[in-house]
Amino acid sequence: MPDGRLAIPASMRRAVLEEAGYSCAIPSCRAMTTEIAHIEPYAKVKEHAFDNLVALCPNCHTRYDVRKDIPQASHHQLQAELGCAEWAIQ
Ligand SMILES: [Zn+2]
Questions:
Q1: CA 53 to ligand 1 center in whole angstroms
Q2: Does the structure show a pLDDT above 70 at 20?
């Protein structure tokens, strides 16, 4: 990674993508994807945690990272719908 951060472990990437069915977590989108986004920015949390990751397509990922126009609350809602809440409790 150019900024020196560690890559998301392959097993964690796969788990997030499988949980999302390899489709974007934005309900109005659902495009096929292999991209992973951090809900709380990596620069802030400085770690990769399953319950902080969500599958987003490239378009929604860019919207989220650059424009921040997807409310964070909706991400947590999405995670709950996708069943990630169970992981978060562990
Ligand atoms: Zn999308």
A1: 14
A2: yes
